[in-house]
Amino acid sequence: MQISVKNVTYRYFEDQKEAVNDVSFDIEKGSYTTIIGHNGSGKSTIAKLLVGLLEANEGTITIEDKLLTEENVTEIRDIIAIVFQNPDNQFIGSTVRDDIAFGLENHSVAPKDMDPIIETFAELVDMTSFLNHEPTKLSGGQKQRVAIAGVLAMKPDILILDEATAMLDPKGKKEVMDLVRKIHQDEKMTIISITHDIEEVNFSDQVIVMNEGQITFNGNPSEILTQQKVLTDIQLDVPFSVKLATKLKDKGIPIENMLDEGKIINELWQYNLKK
Ligand SMILES: Nc1ncnc2c1ncn2[C@@H]1O[C@H](COP(=O)(O)OP(=O)(O)O)[C@@H](O)[C@H]1O
Ligand SMILES: [Mg+2]
After folding, report:
1. Most buried residue, 94, 190, 216, 228, by most Cβ within 10 Å?
2. Where are the beta strands (DSSP E) in the chain?
3. Is the whole model's pTM more than 0.90, yes or no?
4. Atom of ligand 1 nearest to the CA of 46
């Protein structure tokens, strides 16, 4: 396993309830994992623990066989990168080029080597013609693509997106999601995405559901779609067709004899998303 989280607990204040409470999960190299759950369920806290912005009170996090500690947190940050929700909070440079350069500088890339790296990653996110633009003048989707270029230039193995598309309009959302899927497929990059987007959940390899600091479900998307209770708990509405399929099954209509049940539900789910 590329990431192994074991019995991790985190409290922001000693006398407060755990933000993350005895959480364990594994993530496979090259996989796409979505983390879903209500606001305040501990998703961002997990993300911050994974990149070493917070330190667990209890439990261990192992990334590529390295135990995450205060001493090796800088080393771990070469492996794992994060993009946050608000694109405006991630810019330091006065141009897109400066901004990507800033991250490289922090990773000790010599100034003379920077330009080709910057250009490669600007091209990957389709922002080449904006390199000399001010980041503040870009659209939300463009800003997040630049933020992604900035972290990818550091060549991480794992990319975490903490609701990275939440503040974007539908067009910006699509631009960023298409990019993330492309990176995942072409570069085999491990993706961990905290999201409310059910379409993203649907194409993930692994779905983790959080509730009040704990994991209430960890499995693949077709499994979760059959667990109406988990879906209702997290208020993701189950599409009508999935409800129908579940009802048919409850009434003893053997849909599993006609086809693999998971497959039917998956098909119905896909159909619902396309409507
Ligand atoms: N900086 C903070 N200081 C104190 N409590 C916090 C802080 N950030 C988050 N929390 C609390 O920790 C819990 C989990 O929050 P968070 O991880 O941000 O959830 P999510 O990302 O799922 O919305 C919540 O109860 C939240 O109020
Ligand atoms: Mg959050």
Report:
1. 190
2. 3-10, 20-27, 32-37, 58-63, 66-67, 80-83, 158-162, 190-194, 206-211, 214-219
3. no
4. 17
CA angle 14, 15, 19 (to 5 degrees): 70
DSSP helix/strand/coil, 82: strand
Cβ–ligand 1 contact at 49 (below 6 Å): no
Alpha-carbon span 253 to 6, nearest angstrom = 42
CATH code for the domain defined by 1-79+156-220: 3.40.50.300
What's the CA gap between 152 and 168, in Å, rounded? 20
Relative to the CA of 20, which ligand 1 atom is closest?
Answer: 14
CA 129 to chain CA centroid, Å, is 27
Give 165 Cα–ligand 1 centroid separation in angstroms: 19
Q: Mind listing the pLDDT tens digit for each residue in 81-125?
A: 999 988 777 777 889 999 999 888 888 889 899 999 999 999 988
40 Cβ inside 6 Å of ligand 1: yes
Domain ranges of the chain: 1-79+156-220, 88-154
Given the CA of residue 39, which atom of ligand 1 is nearest to it? 23
Task: Kindly state the tokens that stand for 260.
Answer: 């693999």
* Protein residue whose Cα sits closest to atom 26 of ligand 1: 40
Q: Which amino acid type is present at position 2?
A: Q
From ligand 1's centre to the CA of 48, what distance in Å? 11
Establish whether residue 44 lines the binding site of ligand 1, counting it when its CB lies within 6 angstroms of any ligand atom: yes
